[in-house]
TrEMBL record:
This is Large ribosomal subunit protein uL6. This protein binds to the 23S rRNA, and is important in its secondary structure. It is located near the subunit interface in the base of the L7/L12 stalk, and near the tRNA binding site of the peptidyltransferase center. InterPro entries: Ribosomal_uL6-like, Ribosomal_uL6-like_a/b-dom_sf, Ribosomal_uL6_a/b-dom, Ribosomal_uL6_bac-type, Ribosomal_uL6_CS. GO terms for cellular component: ribosome. It comes from the Bacteria. Belongs to the universal ribosomal protein uL6 family.
């Protein structure tokens, strides 16, 4: 039995979970999220908890059991607390600044790069080298942060580029001089 999948998910106060067949809708103080549960897995609400069950012990059912439970738990955390991912811009002349809802990066290219937030995502700029991506959907927050990091990945010689907050960049030794 899945150790993660069999754990019940507590529903905090102010959050409503409605299940209609394979559709799970979570509504909370920060917003609303929906999830379609994969076919053999069943979810049900009992006594202020969400229980996720699987019908058999087939390989695909076992794989989806823990995943489904975690996705529902992530949605509940998202509508109550939200998710955020920090990014740091490192390098001489590299900087970031807010332009309304958008964020503009200067990353050593001949032009500035403007990033618009998708629906449900907001940016917070601290100083001129830190950006925080905020939202209620864990997957979309991570995806937007990864796309921003992709603009200029940290390079291994000087460590310049966009990195996650707290990310450790392995440095290489340069050419040895004579």
């Amino acid at each position: 039995m899945s150790r993660i999948g069999r754990l019940p998910i507590d529903i905090p106060a102010g959050v409503t979970v409605s299940i209609d067949g394979q559709n799970v809708a979570v509504k909370g103080p920060k917003g609303e999220l929906a999830l379609v549960v994969a076919e053999p897995i069943q979810a049900k609400v009992e006594e202020n908890q969400v229980l996720v069950t699987r019908p058999d012990d087939e390989r695909s059912s076992r794989a989806l059991h823990g995943l489904t439970r975690t996705l529902i738990a992530n949605n509940i955390i998202g509508v109550t607390q939200g998710y955020s991912k920090g990014l740091e811009v490192v390098g001489t002349g590299y900087r970031v600044q807010a332009k309304g809802n958008n964020v503009e990066f200067a990353l050593g290219y001949s032009h500035p790069i403007t990033v618009e937030p998708p629906a449900g995502i907001s940016f917070a700029v601290e100083g001129n080298n830190k950006v925080t991506v905020n939202g209620i959907d864990k997957q979309s927050v991570g995806e937007v942060a990864a796309n921003i990091r992709k603009l200029r990945k940290p390079e291994p010689y000087k460590g310049k580029g966009v990195r996650y907050a707290g990310e450790i960049v392995r440095r290489k030794a340069g050419k040895s001089g004579k």
